[in-house]
Write a structure and sequence with these properties.
binds iron/sulfur cluster; 6-stranded mixed beta barrel; N-terminal domain of TfIIb; binds molybdenum atom; 27 strands; 4 domains; Dimethylsulfoxide Reductase, domain 2; binds ligand MGD
């Protein structure tokens, strides 16, 4: 690796004209965001490397991050604002000036608010997160609760489960844990920087690792001391059966329960039916392994479970999640050394160990008295906790074309293919009076927009970011924005000014907003404009145990196995206990295979990398993985075309028989333009607690074609 002269940014000992500029990878976000060095010549990036000594990533980039240069220079980058001139979806646009674009958008949004009310507008964010605090405030300042994001389907289900139980977000004290339970976790593909900590803790301290995953994965093979393989979406039953063994054997922490836990008796009574044998029947995990898992938990002091989005992707997702969290609660593994620790999101969903005024920034303009956000009535727990729209119901709202239907939509990075039964989104987008999409690329979603605005990538903007342990950074641009593209916050600020929203902070721009939010930190924003993240002077780590002692922000002040929030709203029809129901199959005879759509592959991130040549080359064809047993029974061989049939439709994929998959299961990745698995998943198969789609327990049949 080249030695870098940070002070001058030049590659030392050369007069090549190449400069090294420090920036950050924003391909996967927000938990990771690895530091990268851009080698820049004549204003163009010629090479990308990981930044040595960077927190979290320590000089490494994953398969996706290594593709940053090709990502930034993707051929379909949008370089100017565009106005649609053809039919919606046709992709015919003509360039317009920023002024014209902003004038047109502003006039329409103001007209709709005036004529029909602010709730007839919606504001949406796709996977990117760094601007969301401004978008949320923007929606509030405009006057609508209809702000929604891709978090309608991401980690939020697990966060909500912890909110219900503890009123808090949770992190982990993995550095002191004796046991890590990777429940639906394969960081080798999805969270690479975290895996290094797992390996380090295992090698240095002998931390044990249990993996709970139906598949054999790099995590199960390289890390697991015990690997449990439940059927997809049966995790709740598995957790309840483990709890049964713990309780029967007296392997729970009774003094802790007595002092800090609410609802143990009700929970204990419910868990009684989940004997190991019943657990085996429901999950497929042998009873003896259920007992072994309980023994491993009993013999470990300090247990934590990384957050998971996978487990939320079922109709029973949040309840399953609550069931496995309960294992930590009854064994005294919350707010204890080596266990799950209460945390705060410092900025943009990043738990960095310090508080900011971010929530206040977003809530200050929240329109309490406006009509309730889309999805609030159908998903009351979601609304109670999140206060924003459940984006999985946005299309239905528009398609109804009634007095509640949204007429104008401003989206930052919308990919309609993230939603199940996503053809509904195409139809809905066509019905809007105005659809504005802000993206880096001319995506299929952008093709339905009336106005498309060009966003720039992380390498073309400045940004505030924080890392665990009180680390902060305001990183510089590596290159100038391509064409006339701008950062999302700049676009929002320009629009706020053009619309003359009642909000001086938004109008003042990104840096002013960030300064407001971090005003109490021990460094000023200018002091964060450094080469790499710096530690806040005087930073004090979380005092373990303090949240339990102080009392938690739940109705009882305790960890709630029995949720009083849910119990006090019987009209919601939800269960206060983490009860179990099997995944929903509309017709087991017609659809005998369980389909997990979306388990991560190393070279893709939803829709955004399928058009990056280096990434695509690693798995060029949308594929379906299945067990060799099923493949043989159906006469399918590697590379055959097979039809996947659901109750919504069918699509053809290339077959990959692999011994990593259990008979009865099939795995397919999402987000492909040409083979969009979400287009044949049932859009109404949603978790009533969260509104999350059952991406991981869809059902299908398989037919060999060639
Ligand atoms: N390369 C890559 N990395 C990513 C992403 C990406 O698209 N590509 N996406 C990012 C995002 S947005 C997210 S939310 C995270 C997701 O991060 P993860 O949730 O860690 O990722 P997955 O690979 O979807 O799921 C992890 C494992 O769960 C298993 N699994 C699936 N269903 C079940 C189940 O019902 N029960 C159990 N016990 N296990 C199950 C899968 O076999 C898989 O091996 O990844 C992030 N990182
Ligand atoms: N079947 C199935 N579907 C899933 C999932 C699954 O597991 N299975 N996972 C779900 C989950 S967990 C998630 S998080 C969602 C992902 O949700 P998506 O929002 O679909 O994620 P992406 O396709 O990565 O990004 C959306 C858009 O943002 C654009 N973009 C990238 N960077 C920027 C930027 O800085 N500014 C702007 N304005 N735009 C930008 C990209 O070009 C892209 O068009 O998908 C969900 N959908
Ligand atoms: S894990 Fe990979 S994609 Fe995510 S920030 Fe790091 S390098 Fe980028
Ligand atoms: Mo996600």
């Amino acid at each position: 690796m080249t030695v870098i002269d940070y002070m001058h940014g030049k590659v030392p000992g050369t007069d090549s004209g190449i400069e090294i500029h420090h920036s950050m990878c924003d391909i996967c976000t927000p938990g990771m965001q690895c530091g990268l060095d851009a080698y820049v010549k004549d204003g163009k990036i010629i090479k990308i490397e990981g930044t040595e000594g960077f927190p979290v990533s320590s000089g490494k980039l994953c398969t996706k991050g290594a593709g940053n240069r090709q990502f930034v220079y993707r051929e379909d980058r949008i370089l100017t604002p565009l106005k649609r001139v053809g039919e919606r979806g046709e992709g015919k646009f003509e360039p317009i000036s920023w002024d014209e674009a902003l004038d047109t958008i502003s006039a329409k949004f103001l007209e709709v608010r005036e004529k029909y009310g602010a709730d007839k507008a919606a504001f949406y964010s796709g996977y990117s997160k760094y601007y969301r605090f401004m978008l949320r405030r923007f929606a509030g300042a405009y006057g609508t609760q209809n702000y929604g994001t891709e978090s309608s389907a991401c980690f939020t289900s697990g966060w909500m489960a912890w909110q219900v139980a503890s009123g808090r977000e949770m992190g982990m004290d993995m550095g002191n844990a004796e046991l890590l339970i990777g429940w639906g976790a394969n960081g080798f593909h999805s969270r690479y920087p975290m895996v290094r900590n797992e390996i380090r803790n295992k090698q240095n301290r002998g931390m044990k690792i249990m993996i709970v995953d139906p598949r054999i994965t790099p995590a199960s093979q390289r890390l697991a001391d015990l690997h449990l393989r439940p059927h997809l979406g049966t995790d709740g039953a598995l957790a309840l059966a483990i709890a049964h063994v713990l309780i029967e054997n007296g392997w729970v922490d009774l003094p802790y329960i007595e002092k800090y836990v609410h609802g143990f008796e009700e929970y204990k009574a419910y868990v009684q039916q989940f004997t190991p044998e019943k657990g085996e029947e429901l999950t497929g995990v042998p009873a003896k392994d259920i007992i072994a898992a309980a023994e491993m938990i009993h013999s470990s002091k300090g247990i934590c479970i990384p957050e998971s989005s996978t487990l939320g992707h079922h109709r029973n997702g949040m309840q399953n999640y609550r069931a496995l969290m309960s294992l930590l609660i009854i064994t005294g593994n919350v707010d204890r050394k080596g266990a799950q620790l209460p945390t705060v999101f410092s900025f943009m969903e990043r738990p960095s160990g310090f508080s900011t005024h971010e929530e206040e920034f977003m809530d200050e303009k929240y329109p309490e008295d406006a009509p309730k956000a889309i999805g609030a009535d159908e998903f009351p727990l979601w609304y109670h906790i999140r206060k924003d729209m459940q984006a999985n119901r946005l299309a239905d709202n528009i398609l109804k074309q009634d007095e509640h239907s949204v007429k104008v939509l401003l989206a930052l990075g919308m990919n309609y293919r993230m939603f199940t039964e996503d053809n509904k989104y195409i139809e809905a987008l066509k019905k809007l009076d105005m659809f504005v999409d802000v993206d880096l690329f001319m995506t299929d979603t952008a093709k339905y927009a009336d106005i498309v605005l060009p966003a720039c990538s992380s390498l073309e903007r400045e940004q505030f970011i924080s890392y665990p342990g009180g680390m902060v950074w305001y990183f510089p641009k590596a290159i100038e924005p391509l064409g006339e593209s701008k950062s999302d916050p700049e676009i929002l600020s320009l629009l706020a000014r053009k619309m003359d929203l009642d909000d001086d902070l938004l109008k003042a721009g990104y840096e002013a907003c960030v300064r407001w939010i971090i005003r109490d930190l021990s460094l000023d924003l200018d002091e964060m404009k450094t080469e790499k993240p710096v530690k806040l002077p005087g930073f004090k780590p979380y005092e373990i145990g303090s949240s339990l002692e102080k009392g938690l922000p739940t109705p009882t002040g305790k960890l709630e196995l029995y949720s009083e929030i849910i119990a006090s709203h019987p009209e919601w029809g939800l269960d206060p206990l983490p009860t179990y129901t099997s995944p929903y199959n509309p017709d087991p005879e017609a659809y005998p295979f369980q389909l997990c759509a979306g388990a991560r592959i190393p070279n893709a991130l939803h829709s955004r990398l399928h058009d990056v040549p280096w990434e695509r080359s690693l798995l060029p064809e949308p594929s379906v993985e299945m067990s060799p047993e099923d493949a043989e029974a159906l006469g399918i061989e590697l590379g055959d075309d097979v039809e996947i049939i659901t109750n919504i439709g069918s699509l053809t994929f290339k077959a990959i028989p692999t011994a990593t998959i259990m008979p009865g299961d099939v795995f397919i990745y999402h987000g492909y333009r040409e083979k969009d698995i979400n287009s044949i998943l049932d859009g109404d198969n949603l978790d009533p607690y969260t509104g999350f789609p059952a991406y991981r327990s869809a059902y299908c049949n398989i037919r060999r074609i060639s």
